[in-house]
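To: structure desk
From: M.T.
Subject: fold request, one chain
Message: Could you run this one when you get a chance? Sequence is below, nothing fancy, just the single chain.
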Amino acid sequence: MIQIGDPYVLEPYKSKDDKASLLDAAIRRHDGNAIVAATLFMRDTLKRGSALYIYVTFLVVVVVGQDDGPFQGSTNKNLFL
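Reply: Done. Structure tokens follow.
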């Protein structure tokens, strides 16, 4: 679990369900830094082409503002804010 100000390691979260629960916990706590960390971790570790990978990559574009994935140049972030 990511706690504010504490060091954390995300590698023990291996399954898709573990990663989703990590993101869910960050969202429930309204912790923006944890949401970004969990989202980037999921983008970097999920199987490419899976529906969840595509959704998480989309979230990175919209929430984090990195436009270097499959949605590069194809989204208008203002539509989703």
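Reply (cont.): The chain is about 50% helix and 0% strand. Let me know if you need anything else for the meeting.
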